Inverse folding.
């Protein structure tokens, strides 16, 4: 059960990484001053993604340890 939640935390982290990467590509292709205001979205996603990934892997490791 713990590994079930850990897997989806990791998927959420990967999704946030994808959002951050897509936002960087959009900024490069269509750079305009109006869009720079929303650059915080990419920053927040880029900061949260590794944190969530580490939490997910930690929870998964704990679940694996309790099962064995």
């Amino acid at each position: 059960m713990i590994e079930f939640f850990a897997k989806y935390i990791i998927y959420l982290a990967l999704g946030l990484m994808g959002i951050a990467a897509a936002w960087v590509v959009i900024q490069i292709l269509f750079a305009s001053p109006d869009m720079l205001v929303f650059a915080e979205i990419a920053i927040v996603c880029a900061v949260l993604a590794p944190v969530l990934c580490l939490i997910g892997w930690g929870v998964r490791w704990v679940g694996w340890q309790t099962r064995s």
